[in-house]
Write a sequence for this structure.
């Protein structure tokens, strides 16, 4: 018995065959790009998501030698928050969808903060208002594209859009619904008062099912096109990084997680949300809440640096070459500090921030830039870790997942900055494993999802802080925070 798992990421779309124990039999991956026509904008085409998803499914089925009749369910996770408009006929109304990092709705956030007390709204939503939330993005559509808003029957986030293409059913799950800025964490449901605050129609948002619930069965024409059996059940699924927590076997308090792919998300787990202006909260796909801080361009800053170094005319620079360059530079990059908010940040006062290098001198070269970018990403996360500690969150170690874990220098810097051991997971496909586990549980193939999710006999690499380096980075973190405070609101 197997599960077809789909992960609709920002930079790639993947499909996998996963058995009921969470073991991955085969994976396919297809890359995609982000379109940014104006500063602060980030968008993609839903119709491209669907075409690439079908291609990924076709490729993974060719890779793995199984009877397709063994596929008992399909489960999807994906990049969060981007509202895809669907009309009454099931057609896409938003040709270009604002994805999670898009910040064009900053003015909506500012307007609501002027009209309402943000802390009082947080007592309902569990969250500060940010440009990431779909409810705010939909308000922007209503104000700026009223024809699209009016003809849209329902707005679906990326993984729910894929589920809709598979089933024709509009549905969402708590991990995504809790991030709409329309959710009430006290009742675990949508809230009419929040809809009035945003001045949008709550009926345009999909009903909420548990992340492991069956929301429908695959449509016959889609099954025929994909060459898989009819009537396969489709699971609600969840937001990608929260499903990854399940895939890592990390459920319950006491675990902090660093997820660095396009972004860097620093996650803790609590029974209830942490109400604070610098903390965002989402429902877990199983139980409890996931408070987190996010650096939108955590991994993307490092990719930018590699691409920048490659553009100097000396040929393509690999990640390994860039890392080796950075290793030759001392801690602190001889006074050069990188400000890593290249697409702004979710903190409302700093939405339109841009990246910069601070402290450039005539003695700096390309290797200094390479190291300072890694240090800037680590220092930004160090600032957030310090905030969690100030809020009473106890963190003993950090589990790390994502493509960036191949960069051991980055995680040594993170260990030294945060003064926390960094455990580099040997589970490379946590999100796909989590999808498989959700489906296996929802279909009754496993009885105890928490026990099954635990990873046994792992070969994780542990990177411990270096005491002398940690002392140097403690001083550098204070300098980074001083620079950070000066630059809040500089870009408007």
């Amino acid at each position: 018995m197997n599960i077809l798992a789909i992960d609709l990421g920002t930079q790639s779309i993947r499909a996998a065959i996963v058995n009921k124990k969470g073991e991955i039999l085969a994976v396919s991956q297809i890359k995609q790009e982000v379109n940014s026509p104006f500063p602060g904008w980030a968008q993609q085409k839903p119709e491209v998501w669907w075409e690439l998803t079908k291609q990924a499914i076709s490729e993974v089925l060719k890779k793995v030698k199984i009877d397709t009749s063994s596929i008992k369910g399909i489960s999807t996770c994906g990049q969060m928050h981007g509202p895809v408009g669907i009309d009454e006929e099931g057609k896409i109304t938003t040709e270009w969808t604002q994805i999670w990092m898009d910040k064009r709705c900053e003015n909506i956030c500012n307007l609501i903060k002027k009209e309402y007390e943000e802390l009082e709204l947080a007592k309902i939503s569990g969250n500060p208002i940010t440009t990431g939330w779909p409810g705010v993005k939909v308000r922007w559509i209503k104000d700026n594209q009223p024809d699209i808003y009016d003809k849209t029957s329902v707005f679906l986030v990326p993984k729910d859009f894929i589920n809709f293409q598979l089933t024709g059913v509009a549905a969402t799950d708590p991990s995504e619904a809790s991030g709409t800025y329309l959710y009430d964490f006290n009742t675990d449901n949508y809230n009419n008062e929040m809809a009035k605050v945003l001045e949008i129609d709550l009926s345009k948002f999909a009903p909420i099912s548990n992340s492991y619930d069956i929301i429908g069965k695959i449509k016959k024409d889609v099954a025929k096109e994909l060459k898989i059996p009819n009537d396969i059940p489709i699971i609600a699924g969840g937001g990608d990084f929260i499903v990854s927590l399940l895939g890592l076997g990390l459920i319950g308090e006491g675990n902090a997680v660093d997820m660095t792919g396009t972004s860097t998300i620093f996650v803790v787990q609590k029974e209830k949300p942490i109400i604070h202006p610098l903390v965002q909260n989402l429902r877990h796909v199983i139980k409890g809440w996931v408070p987190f801080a996010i650096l939108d361009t955590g991994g993307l800053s490092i990719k930018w640096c590699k691409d920048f170094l490659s553009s100097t005319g000396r040929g393509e620079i690999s990640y390994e070459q860039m890392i080796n360059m950075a290793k030759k530079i001392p801690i602190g990059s001889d006074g050069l500090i990188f400000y890593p908010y290249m697409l702004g940040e979710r903190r409302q006062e700093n939405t339109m921030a841009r990246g910069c290098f601070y402290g450039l001198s005539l003695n700096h070269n390309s290797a200094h830039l390479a190291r300072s970018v890694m240090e800037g990403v680590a220092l930004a996360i160090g600032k957030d870790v310090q905030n969690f500690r100030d809020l009473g969150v106890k963190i003993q170690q950090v589990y790390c997942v994502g493509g960036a874990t191949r960069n051991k220098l980055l995680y040594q810097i993170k260990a030294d900055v945060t003064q926390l051991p960094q455990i580099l997971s040997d589970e490379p496909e946590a999100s796909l494993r989590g999808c498989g586990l959700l489906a296996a549980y929802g279909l009754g193939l496993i009885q105890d999802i928490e026990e099954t999710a635990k990873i046994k006999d792992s070969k994780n690499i542990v990177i411990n802080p270096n005491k002398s380096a940690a002392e140097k980075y403690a001083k550098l973190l204070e300098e980074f925070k001083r620079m950070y405070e000066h630059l809040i609101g500089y870009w408007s």
Remarks:
- The chain is about 40% helix and 20% strand.
- The CA atoms of residues 211 and 236 lie 5 Å apart.
